[in-house]
Amino acid sequence: MKKRVAVKDLNVGMYVVQVTKSNGSAIMTSKGVIKHLGAIKKLKSLGVKEVEIDTSKSVVAAEDLSPETSPSQNETLDTSIERNATPLASEMRRAKSMYADARTELKNTFETLKRGGDIDIAPYEDIAKGFFESVFRNQDALLCMTKLQDKDSYLFEHSLNVAILLAIFSVHLGFSKQLGTKLTLAGLLHDLGKSKISDDILFKQGKLSKDEFEIMKLHTVYGEDILSNMNVDDLTKQIALQHHERLSGSGYPHGLIAHQINQYVRMSSIADSYDAITAERVYKPAISSVEALRLLQQSQGKEYDDDLINKFVRAIGLYSIGTVVLMKSQKLAIVTDTNYEAPLKPSLTAFYHTRFKRHIEPSPIALQLTRETDAIEKVVNAADYQLDINLLIERFILDSYR
Ligand SMILES: [Fe+2]
After folding, report:
1. Separation of 91 CA from ligand 1 center, angstroms?
2. What pLDDT tens digit does each residue of the chain (402 aa) get?
3. Exposure pattern of 64-85 as b/e (b: 16+ CB <10 Å)?
4. 99 — phi, psi (to 5°)?
């Protein structure tokens, strides 16, 4: 739906079609989603007073969420800070140590819970705040960390990844820092109930039997129970309990149906499933990010919220840093930087030739230059070419930001 909006009411995530009122002679050179606050400032400086937006292509603003499911803190982001304004190099260093510290914290928490001990919520509030702020400064850094694969510490990394994905999702939906941090915290704590599931079920190297799956399902109820003894808000408990519920009623533990599942739980189930599908596990290979998004979309509104899935895709982008792509030239390349102006033309480094099955001298591919003849064919999984994604990220991304 097309709608006219005053420039002062514009927000990040809105899809602008054209200028409708202006003091100057500004014209739109391209349509598109407003990716950062700088773009709004620029429109203002050009004397633009009003634009036409397409709400069907826009990332929803917080006030568009149904009021009955929205907590009261749905004010939009503090506009005094510019999003994605921090250089990747400095954010990457911070993100790396934040991610490692948070993983240690979660590992200790699971061990404490297994022993029946109590845990303190304070460190997680700090981690959630740190993650949300990092994502706001430059989402590429922590998003890159979610691409690292470690089968042995999946339990902890999955929780970190869901938290990061929810932080990114929240920023793109224009949520306040308070609400975004809350959802990030809920991501960190959503699977604590797994500490009450025996290791032989939790780490089974094969498909769970029907009875084992029934036990596994209880991690949601245990999770809510653990959190009810801690000083956390209801949304965090609700996400721990409901993140496996599906719109069709096929989820668990209670088989809730669409109208009983609020927007925040829907967001958490998308982030949770996306990370589970893309992860390499002992019983399944990793699946590429684009394939995972396609699988989520395939449920066509039956399990996940279609509208939110589309917004999730826009939030994380198809070619985020660390994504491996197959080029038309049959070379493999890794995304080393995103391109906010032209998201389909990220910075790439080619490093492998699939025809000769060997590494090649790394060379940059500049898709933004018209003389570049190579093009992206598809997103792939490094493991499908017997390549280790962790080593690739280490070599081509993390090493350059030491
Ligand atoms: Fe879960």
Report:
1. 29
2. 778 888 877 876 677 888 888 876 656 656 777 766 667 777 777 778 888 887 766 654 433 333 333 443 343 444 344 566 678 888 988 999 999 999 999 999 999 999 998 889 999 999 999 999 999 999 999 999 998 887 667 889 999 999 999 999 999 999 999 999 999 999 999 999 999 999 999 988 888 999 999 999 999 999 999 999 888 999 999 999 999 999 999 999 999 999 999 999 999 999 999 999 988 776 677 788 888 888 888 877 789 999 999 999 999 988 989 999 999 999 999 999 888 778 889 999 999 999 999 999 999 998 888 788 899 999 998 988 999 998 999 889 888 776
3. ebeeeebbeebebbeeeeebbe
4. -65, -45
Centre of ligand 1 to C-alpha 237, Å, is 13
Going from the Cα of 216 to the center of ligand 1, the distance in angstroms, rounded, reads 9
Q: How far is the CA of 244 from the centre of ligand 1 (A)?
A: 6
Q: Could you tell me where the beta strands, DSSP code E, fall in 354-394?
A: 358-366, 376-380
CA of 387 relative to ligand 1 center, distance in Å: 29
Q: What is the CA radius of gyration of the chain?
A: 22
> 2-58 in CATH: which number?
3.90.105
Which residues have beta carbons under 5 A from ligand 1 (an ion)?
191
Q: How far is the CA of 24 from the centre of ligand 1 (A)?
A: 53
Give me the architecture of the 88-316 domain, per CATH. Orthogonal Bundle (1.10)
Distance 326 CA to ligand 1 centre (A): 32
Please give the distance, rounded to the nearest whole angstrom, from the Cα atom of residue 210 to the centre of ligand 1: 17
Question: What is the whole-number distance in angstroms between the Cα of residue 322 and the centre of ligand 1?
Answer: 25
Distance CA 195, CA 155 (A): 10
Q: Extract the tokens encoding 137.
A: 């400064």
Domain residue ranges of the chain, discontinuous segments joined by +: 2-58, 88-316, 324-401
219 CA distance to ligand 1 middle (Å) = 7
